[in-house]
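RECORD TYPE: protein structure
NAME: Alpha/beta hydrolase
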Amino acid sequence: MTTQMLPSLAAVVGDRYRSHEVPVRGGLLHVGVWEPEREDPHAPTVLAVHGITASHVAWPLLAQALPGARVIAPDLRGRGQSRDLPGPYGMRSHADDVAAVLDHFGVTQAVTVGHSMGAFVAVVLADRHEDKVSSLVLVDGGMPLLPPEGVAPQDLSQAILGPAADRLRMTFADHSAYRQMWREHPAFREWTELTSAYADYDLVPTGDGAFQPATRVEALDEDIAELVEGDSLLTALANLRHPASWLLAPRGLMDEVPPLYPQWAREHWIAAHPQLAVSEVEDVNHYTIVMLERGMSQVVPHVRAALGR
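PREDICTED:
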């Protein structure tokens, strides 16, 4: 990944955006930061944590909607411009990485918003670094996934993620070819400038003139098992003590019904954690809940309410 900002990224992140490199175990974690519109030493901080094969480029709409807040969004270990950081991966590692990010920026406490796997990271962060989190906003993630019966551990990625996992083993001639793959994905029928930036940022050169997605396969495989039965996640949920909103998409990763959390799974986790404030975000899928205006416009009030606490 070149250090020069891609034109498609520059078009969506705005003037408040700066990129940073933060020391963590094994190297530097790449972080995007949107500073408050007006300089304010008392401005609140929102920590935004992306999904399992995503990057911090999932979050420009959140930052645009919160001009009075600082929004800090890392590329998790093994993804984006943090892809060369070594394993082990897993929720503990990611939680400790983002805690180091908050320390780097002098943030004592943040509202933590996590999408998909980022919600799992947020839950474990709140357990391992309790004082750094004020509230949690868990966006279509955070509760253990219940895969179809009979799915073997080595098949989890395909069973849960489908084409999002398949693409990590593919190469592409150029950015246009990669965009086309995403345009054919049923979850991205509504294409925006943000979708272009998200896809462009995700490509890295292979060294032979081609490109590949930035997420490392070994990071995906290590992380996805923890979303089902990871000890750190189960411990963190058993100890859940922060105010937490759980926002759910009505359609899944392929724009399908049932969604990632079908009704029976929702009822199971709501019964297990009655303190969750649960809401469904209308007319979105697992991706567009954060990547379309109509999704983010329904997420933002929950983040503002958390900031108000």
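COMMENT: The chain has a mean pLDDT of 95.
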